[in-house]
Amino acid sequence: MIKIVNLSKTYEKDKKSVEALKNINLEVKKGSIHGIIGLSGAGKSSLIRCINRIEKPTSGEVWIKDVNIMNLSNKELRNIRKKIGMIFQNLIS
Hints:
Layout: E1 2-13, E2 16-28, H1 44-51, E3 59-64, E4 67-68, H2 74-81
Antiparallel strand pairs: 1-2, 1-3, 3-4
């Protein structure tokens, strides 16, 4: 199970803020399959990168199998990522 609670991500560049994600709440039950689709710039990649902690969310929680991955050490994150699959939209050939 993946549970996302009030997830937000804001990027700072040249003293400007861009709010990519704002208070996202989502629950994916074990065994279900979902896709994330949307227009360019909608925040799809930011959401996925926050779910697997490639990027640190500005705020919120990400739970995987009852573990809040926001509280994991780098070593613990590496171990949990071994069990997370990701399919990229564009593959380099």
